[in-house]
Amino acid sequence: MRKIQLAAIGFACAILAGCGGGGSDNPSGGANPPAPGSPGGSEQAAAPPPITCAASSASLTKGTITVNGTAREYFESAPASILALREKDARGIAVVVNFHDANQTGQSGAASTCWNEVGEAKGFVTVFPSALGGTWNSKGDASAADEVAFLKALLPVIKTKYALASNAIVYYTGVGQGGRMAQSMAMQAPQFLAAVASIDGTAEPEIFSLGSAKLPSTTMSSWIIKTKAQSNASEATQIAYWNKQNSAYSAPIAVDDPVFTSQVYASDERPLHQVKVSTPKLSGYAGKALTENIWDALFAKTVRFFDDNRTNGSIHANQTIEDMKLIDTTKEFVPGSPRRWLTYLPSNYVALTAGGQKIPLVISHHGRNGSGRWQAITSQWHEVGEKYGFIVVYPQGNGATWNTGIAPTNVDVAFELSLIDELKTKYAVDPTRVFLNGASMGSAFTNRMAVQYPLLFAAIAPCYSGHLSPANYADPIVRTDVPMPTWQCRGQDEVPSDFPGGTAGEAAAQLFWRETVNKNSGVPTLQVDGRRVTEIWNNGVAEYRWQLTQYQPHFWNEGQAAKIWEEMFSKYSRAANGQLVRLP
Fold first, then answer.
1. What is the pTM of this model?
2. Domain 2-43+56-317: which CATH class?
3. Which CATH architecture group holds 327-582?
4. DSSP letters of 301-360?
5. Cβ–Cβ < 8 Å for 203, 137
6. Hey, is 470 helix, strand or coil?
7. Do domains 2-43+56-317 and 327-582 have the same CATH topology?
8. What are 445-488's pLDDT values in tens digits?
9. pLDDT tens across 501-543, in order?
């Protein structure tokens, strides 16, 4: 079973030309190119191309930040098209941090790896921090530079500059002493990290002896690449460290491809929680060719979900729109204002709709600094739609967000109304079974749609945490006369500043849907389902649920969509006269 799992993922088979996986994390889409040295999928490795980074220096921006009273230098670069990339898929823009080798700077490290040129081509931001005096404090000497503090101060600066989400995905890499730093930083500062790739370096022995307070629990995808013959005394310790973090205890699997011979240690439960140790088949494999290989084979295929604070979340396969079989549509409902959405039709759509049959529709909204693609990856509503036979749509907000203002002229409300009409015309949508969902700002927008147009929807599920301001509920457009099955949920570890509306908005939303609209009162029924603890009210005119998920930050909980469908959405329809109908 484990060999089947490993064969199914892109990282395990590195960059075999026939490996599949359906593309990179480049928001512009398109399939990954063939692996360097494997043109057309040939098993014969070709000589590595020369390092050519002619534009590296010109494309870098130098910056400094002060850390513990010391000015620290860094260089960074972003794609020239970053604004367009952000509009199309803000969560597709990752940050790669490259740690240079000894006796280099961030700038010369860029020139020897070409990470910024690959970032320009693939659509991600690159950062090249510089060590003081050209040498990293890779052993964590308390009397030398605090490299962890440097990295933790630098990443928010970069994300803010390019308007990326605070938890935008990050990858670490490095060569030689920089490789040791990449692994060391992955151990000490893994919060937003999805994967680490080190070339000729693993963490120093001193790092492994740090206390648990400095080595937080985290799952990881780690790639150790060895281009030099000499052994690394810390390699076995590094492998054992990540295997323990990943709960991977089985013997490694040998993997052979046109470029590398490798050993892969992976978790049986989650194959992307793994360590891969590779040796190139040809000497001299370095520079831009190796950089592209690392991006295509590992970084572009791997994302972190922040779904469990006990383990720094979990590693998942990154997926393109094509991977998920979503239909990408753009239309101008208002001339000059194109709007975009992604649609999933179940594979048996034709059979389900034969003879004029209609099927349900679930619309799921992404959060601020999100995208329809990211909402699809994290919520997996389309997988539930495939299983149960309904249409799923992921709309895209302008500026990677939603307008939740209560004004009747709200342009996003107008877009959503037009979108629903379009979907009913184009597909076999059952108008009595349209459901709304959202996460964060998308949750707030779900609330915004439902308070004004409740008769359009059979039930709503604004999860995770996004609310309107309390004063909004007094606006004349807000309706309180239409019963609405409502499922609200939040992560127990969320803090009010994480989500729209904050504490006051959360309390107001609970009161509005539970009591003002659905007329529930008294003591709820308590449901415990793993980490999810749900209070259920069902003594009013419509059902209301309030769910807390333990160890959960402000992020979608895996399996949440299936639970909402099975326990609520599948139970309701709204008749043409507006009456709420409970289905058998």
1. 0.89
2. alpha beta
3. 3-Layer(aba) Sandwich (3.40)
4. GEEEE---TTTT-EEEE---TTTTTPEEEEEEEETTEEEEEEEE--TTHHHHTGGG--EE
5. no
6. helix
7. yes
8. 999 999 999 999 999 999 988 999 999 999 999 999 999 999 99
9. 889 999 999 999 999 999 999 999 999 999 999 999 999 999 9
